[in-house]
Amino acid sequence: VPVMVVFKAMGMESDQEVVQMVGRDPRFSSMLLPSIQ
């Protein structure tokens, strides 16, 4: 299951909102990128 789908199921409405919640840590950014594209 893509990570973004899980976050949206938990109530996040936009990709930007998820990225802001996760933060700017490069480790997490690299995990989110495939789900955003």
Automatic annotation (TrEMBL):
Alphabetized GO MF terms: DNA binding; DNA-directed RNA polymerase activity
Source superkingdom: Eukaryota
InterPro entries to which the protein is assigned, alphabetical: RNA_pol_Rpb2_2_sf (IPR037034)
Alphabetical GO biological process terms: DNA-templated transcription
Protein name per UniProt: Uncharacterized protein
Organism: Nymphaea colorata
